[in-house]
Amino acid sequence: MNAPSYDALSGLLADPNSSGADLLAAARELRDSFVRSEHLIGLMPDDAPEVLVAGLERAGAAGVVDAWLELGRLRAHGAAPWAPYPEHDVGAAIEAYRAADRAGSVAGALGWIRTAYFARSEPHARAASDRLEQLLAAAPEDPELLLLSGYLTHQGYGRPRDEAAALRHQLAAAQRGSHDAAFELSVMYAIGSGVPADQAESHRWTLQAAQLGSPRAMANLGGMYATGRGVDPNPAVALDWYTKAADAGHAKGAYTAGLMCLIGDGGLPIDKDRAATHFARADELGFEVDASLEAMGLHR
């Protein structure tokens, strides 16, 4: 027996009159079947990833821009950490996002610029930089555009490298509410990139990034309070920040919170039930909990 979502999308693909909206809806149902791990219990034929891609491509060709966005995301990241289908393909992800961009989607433009940048795709570097400049000229206050401009400028991706200019871009983005930019500033002050190293300023920006919602900053604050790096050590505060990071989707933060509860780190009370909850969250986020514990001679 096949998953109903597979049969539904296959049936729509066999009908030349299927609408783009119906194809997208069915493709999303099939995507969710992968997220539910139905491929692991024999409900997905071998060609299910190809059927998913075909459904999204046909919906996109029918003018449904969201289908190109969905395909770009899936090609770049997979359906879920534990179900990376369809197969990752940076070039295909970029092309899907660019199809959305050509249809007038700013999300599509941001999607392919980000994908190209984080993959450090040299063939796309200059075009990504130029497209970002066009977007920024039209919306100079947009924090996401300022953040990306800071990334590209800091790394010299498609443009000359300029750490001081990158800092200015990230500061402007952070002042407009970007937690990712605030996190970048915390790193830049920590290592002295574009500005003299200043650990107090780094901590201030880490805290601001966490307060703005950055899971990475929350986890970093956990590490600071666990080790006493730049602050007075406080295991209880460390666990609180790791827990917040876990709740925000940070896999290693969830694992570390579980580990602290499991071993009573820093004098905390051992709480195996709470550890189990954190480990389950880390599992859900794709962290290899058992292998990491085993490497330390531990188990749940």
Structure description:
The protein has 300 residues and is mostly helical. The chain has 3 domains: 1-118, Serine Threonine Protein Phosphatase 5, Tetratricopeptide repeat; 139-213, Alpha Horseshoe (Serine Threonine Protein Phosphatase 5, Tetratricopeptide repeat); 215-300, Serine Threonine Protein Phosphatase 5, Tetratricopeptide repeat (Alpha Horseshoe). The chain contains 16 helices and no strands. The longest helix is centred in the N-terminal third of the chain and has 16 residues, at 20-35.
What are its keywords?
Serine Threonine Protein Phosphatase 5, Tetratricopeptide repeat; 16 helices; 300 residues; mainly alpha; 3 domains; single chain; 69% helix
> What would the principal axes of the Cα set say about the shape?
flat
Low-pLDDT segments, ≥5 res: none
Strand share of the residues? under 5%
Oligomer: single chain
> Count of helical segments?
16
Briefly, what CATH class of the largest domain?
Mainly Alpha
The second-level CATH architecture of the largest domain is Alpha Horseshoe
Number of strands: 0
Largest sheet: none
Overall tally of domains = 3
N-to-C SSE string, H for helix and E for strand: HHHHHHHHHHHHHHHH
Structural class: mainly alpha
Helical amount among residues, as a percent range? 55-70%
Write the layout of secondary structure elements.
Layout: H1 4-14, H2 20-35, H3 48-61, H4 65-77, H5 90-102, H6 106-118, H7 125-138, H8 143-155, H9 163-175, H10 179-191, H11 199-212, H12 215-227, H13 235-247, H14 251-263, H15 272-284, H16 289-295
